[in-house]
């Protein structure tokens, strides 16, 4: 054991009590010193100067009413319960960058010290996020990224290239190796969808030259608009065989429209969707398949990584490992890799939902 004083210090320590002119200030100093000595003697260490920062987390999705983000919020809340953190779902009512900037600024003004964000625009949100970070707010993006200056790290669903390749392969299978396909996306500025579509185009050019991408439509992640755009694609391109919808709202709208129209059995829908939303259409053949990752775990990992950055000062450099919580599906940590925009953490491979397995999932 290492004693926390030297002989001269012991003498000075007791002099405080024997000096005739002792002041209250000296007495209080002696009591404080005695408490420190007692703690050291009992534990062998000095107690840390400060406890972990109490987390107050704002979860800002692209749009508050989308089931995909509500499923992710279940994971956010699970992590918050483990961490005894305060969490709030701050879903915008419009799928725009402006609506998210409003939520970001409001969260900062309300004292939130962590923001978990799925971005509606790669660049437009960065000024507000940089201002938040200057005030000590930790920003972690998931699902859809911003420029690296606006956040600490991005939690990616899976490899963006891998998603694009999977979408191309599915479209090729459903089209029978040739023919016209179309894309139903979210908004023209959606970071993740744009990256996936670009990789899908590259894969088609490299491996499936007999596929022809005739159009990309935007349903704004709203059921009505997505349905209208689906109808428009089929009417404008009567020979289209497959509609690829890399959006959980668009894929449901497209499959529902096809299921109730004369196009059923002629036009197939594929893309990214929640199994509970897609069961009916997968089973009736309107949507031959859909893919998605564990959305609930997505939100959980984002919060746990933010906590590691905030309270453990975890490195976010490429190659670093970050603790991701005991509930991260058996994983203890995640590795930071280099992504399309900057540093990122890959959640894991997607699951393909088919008639054979869709009933096994409940989210």
Number of discrete helical segments: 11
CATH architecture label name of the largest domain: 3-Layer(aba) Sandwich
Overall structural domain count: 3
Helix content percent band: 40-55%
Find the CATH superfamily of the largest domain: Response regulator
Backbone shape: elongated
**Uncertain regions spanning at least 5 consecutive residues:** 1-50
Give the radius of gyration. 27 Å
- By CATH, the topology of the largest domain is Rossmann fold
How would you characterize this protein structure?
- There is one protein chain.
- The relative contact order is 0.12.
- The chain has about 375 residues and is an alpha/beta fold.
- The termini are far apart.
- It has an 8-stranded mixed β-sheet with strand order 2-1-3-4-5-13-12-11, sandwiched between helices. Strands 7-6-8-9 form a 4-stranded parallel β-sheet.
- The N terminus is likely disordered.
- Helices cover about 45% and strands about 20% of the residues.
- It has 3 domains: about 35 residues, no CATH class; about 160 residues, 3-Layer(aba) Sandwich (Rossmann fold); about 130 residues, Response regulator (Rossmann fold, 3-Layer(aba) Sandwich), CATH 3.40.50.
- Strand 1, helix 3 and strand 2 form a beta-alpha-beta unit.
How do you describe this structure in short?
This protein is of the alpha/beta class and 363 residues long. The protein contains 11 helices and 14 strands.
